[in-house]
Structure formats: C-alpha cells, structure tokens
Write a structure and sequence with these properties.
Layout (H helix, E strand, L loop, with lengths): L14 E5 L3 E5 L4 E6 L6 H11 L9 E4 L3 E5 L6 H4 L7 H16 L21
Antiparallel strand pairs: 1-2, 2-3, 3-5, 4-5
Amino acid sequence: MRAGPGRGPFTQTGSLPGSGRTADVYEIDGAWVPRRYRDGWGDAAAEAVVMDHVRGRVCPAPGVRTATRGDLVMEKLSGPARPEAMPHGRLGPQEAGELPPGRCATCMRCPPATRRTRPSASSTSTCTH
C-alpha cells in the first residue's frame, strides 16, 4: 500500500482479499490486516474505540493494533464467512438463520461506553450491529 497525504501510515504492499462499497482490506502478514477507507469515507479511529470497548465483554471483535481516521489495522480472523460455509455443509440453514438475531441480542447486552471510552462527539460515524 502506498502512504501519502491523508493516506495513513501503511507503506507495505499486500494482496487485496476484500473490497467493499467504501473500504479495501489488504493482507500484509498472517496476523494483521489493514482496512483502508476510500475517498475520505468513515472514521476508523472511532470504530477502533467501539471495537476495543465491546471486545472481551460480550461481542466478538478483532483486536486493533492502530487506527487513524481512514485506516484501521486489525487482527486477522480466520474461517469461512456464512455464504462460504453453507454450501460446503459447515453451517446448516437453521444455524445460519439463528446467527444474526443471536449475535444482535448478545451485542445489545454490552454495557454502554463511558465518557472516557466512547468516540468523540465530533465523530460522524455510527456504530451498528
């Protein structure tokens, strides 16, 4: 990846295993993956605060190594995603259907962040689960 004005601290080039509407995920080593927002979208630093808050309480979340407004280096998770697991029989239809509501109920039990741990009031990001 290239660093430049507003582009964050990442200078290594890696493969691009994931790309979504607003961000790209790169693979730089076996333990960490950087996610970079495109076109100034998002606030990865605010997301990192939320991820750190919920991690280890009730919601599964990857660990965060560093974060800036546009870049987030997080723990690489392994295993198939639901759409990949179902056709190969690793996840049945009933279990796949129970995951989203069960995960949402679990995350809703997470205590709110304290003033010290929540993102700044100027943040435009929204945390959804």
